[in-house]
């Protein structure tokens, strides 16, 4: 992964992920090193394969949908927040398949090939995730 800060206010970065990089790991590592209070990101590129998640409300867990094929990343959007003292990357993705169809979901894992171009923009407020007993997820909490 290559990182370049391109703007000071708000802090804005371009991350270039390379073949073999795993997206969620790279975003989490970036957040741990740069320590944004919170941030949003967008990306385009391609994966050699990925695992999409679908949150099953009844069972309160993600169902895994592996995609074992080269795909285009048509849209990747998400945020970086904090869960206690650990950074948390949350991303949703739409991928284009070989036949031109598209599918998407929560990005659980994505292996880059050949590249993924990510723009990260820091938000001015600290956003914290806390466990929500109804959903069983760590959700962003906004303090009043």
Shape: flat
Looking at CATH, the homologous superfamily is Hypothetical protein, similar to alpha- acetolactate decarboxylase, domain 2
Secondary-structure element string: EEHEEEEEEE
Low-confidence stretches: none
> Mean pLDDT score, rounded?
93
Roughly what percent helix?
Answer: under 10%
**DSSP summary: helix tally:** 1
The largest β sheet comes out as: 7 strands, antiparallel
Give the number of DSSP strands: 9
Computed Rg: 15 Å
Distance between the termini: 37 Å
CATH fold topology = 60s Ribosomal Protein L30, Chain: A
What structural class do the secondary elements suggest? mainly beta
CATH class category name: Alpha Beta
Structure notes:
The protein is mostly beta strands and 144 residues long. It has a single domain (2-141), classed as 2-Layer Sandwich (60s Ribosomal Protein L30, Chain: A), CATH 3.30.1330.80. It contains one helix and nine strands, in the order E-E-H-E-E-E-E-E-E-E. Strands 1, 2, 3, 4, 5, 6 and 7 form a seven-stranded antiparallel β-sheet that branches. A hairpin with a 4-residue loop joins strand 8 and strand 9. The protein is flat, with a radius of gyration of 15 Å. The termini are far apart.
């Amino acid at each position: 992964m290559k990182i370049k800060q391109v703007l000071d206010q708000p802090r804005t970065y371009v991350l270039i992920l390379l073949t073999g990089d795993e997206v969620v790991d790279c975003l989490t590592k970036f957040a741990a090193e740069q320590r944004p209070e919170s941030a949003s990101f967008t990306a385009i590129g391609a994966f050699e394969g990925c695992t999409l998640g679908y949150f099953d409300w009844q069972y309160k867990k993600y169902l895994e949908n592996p995609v074992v094929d080269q795909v285009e990343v048509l849209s990747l959007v998400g945020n970086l927040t904090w869960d206690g003292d650990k950074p948390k990357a949350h991303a949703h993705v739409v991928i284009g398949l070989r036949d031109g169809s598209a599918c998407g979901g929560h990005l659980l894992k994505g292996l880059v090939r050949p590249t993924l171009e990510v723009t990260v923009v820091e938000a001015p407020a600290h956003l914290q995730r806390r466990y929500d007993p109804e959903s069983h997820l760590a959700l962003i909490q906004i303090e009043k």
